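Data card: per-record layout.
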Amino acid sequence: MNKLCKYIVALMFVLVITAGCSRQAAPPDTVIIEQLPPLYSESTEQTTQLNPVSAEEARYHIGIITLGSANADDDYRGARALVTEFGAAEDGGMVRHIVPPENFRGEQETFMAMITGLAEDSLMKAIIVFHSIEGTAAAFQKIKDSGREDMLLIAAQPQDAPEIISQAADIIVDYYDNVARGYYDIVRAKNMGAKHFVFLSFPRHMSNEGLYRKKNIYEETCKDLDIEFVFVTVPDPVEIGVANVQKQVYDMMPSLVDKYGKDTAFFTTNWPLTETIIQGVIELGALFVITDDAVPFLGFPEALGLDSSNLGYDYPAIVAKIEEAVETKGGGGRLGCFAYSPPYCHSAGLGHLAMDMIEGKSTDIQKDIVTIYQALTPGCDWMSDIFRYPDGRTINNYYFLSMDTYIFGQGYSGVFSEPFPEKYYSIE
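The structure for this 428-residue chain is written out next.
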């Protein structure tokens, strides 16, 4: 698992977008997407300002907390891109980026103090916390209670309970939209020719409310789209080891394809099994729609035996290399992946959203988030939805973001043009 994660992290890159670096005046209803930052840097630690913001221009500051590059590479890079574009607050620029200790989960009080400490800056107008571990809501509430009601508080990937963080934060953003993906993943599978959908998991993962709800939506959507849903229980890697489970799954795939046919899409909730399933799908001519986690091209380099290290952080180039290999093996139109990094979009994009809101340029948050994220991922479509409980209750300041899937040999699936059916919101 560690080796897999390190390899994936090594492939993370920062997308090049050529754009101006100063923020110009604009009508109140304008979202400044042409001024998104140049997102590529040779080094994770790069802080050189391409067009530094002078002290006179820094009318306000925004603060952003991300994990360090060793723990969350793309989160960190997105924040550094903001510093590169708008300058570090400590040097007269606009952005103050801080990183918690590596053992931040065991130092909750320190983490909370870092958040509240940002609010002591009189020029600070927005604080973005990514990842928002438990305690973020308490820190936000403390800032509000201190009288800083002028402060825009944004939580990304929150771990506090939804009803708690939504009371303390002004905006919450999450890219794990299990409801939307539960429907659209199956629509993609149908469009790719799937007649069966095999879902591989184990009891520990199925005890997770989000995963179990997505499984149920998968199953209901399969029924509605005339696809046979097949749940396959596999051993838990924690209990018998990753290598043993990988071998068992690899060995069982030929019989599953023999039973259900090549027009069978495979899905797993487990990271290490992704590589195994992709390898089996390619060898057997089956289908693979997407990974469970929003990690770009997870499992593909390993399954295909590709070395993309020479491509650095150039996602389009890496995807093109994978696509060539997939098509060479006859998998064109039959396998899909995420082609960009949602964590990068969170940290870089939410900085821009905060600035637009502070400057009165954002009038529709849900729409503007999508606009900004799409500018960060050329060619890729996004959709946004608010948090909805199965009983119909909503949290209107909690936004889920979903990125479209890239199908090798075909392009982006384009399924977001199809409206999401209301019935799936009510599935427990």
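Known properties of this structure: The longest strand covers residues 394-403. The mean pLDDT is 86.

See the next section for split statistics.
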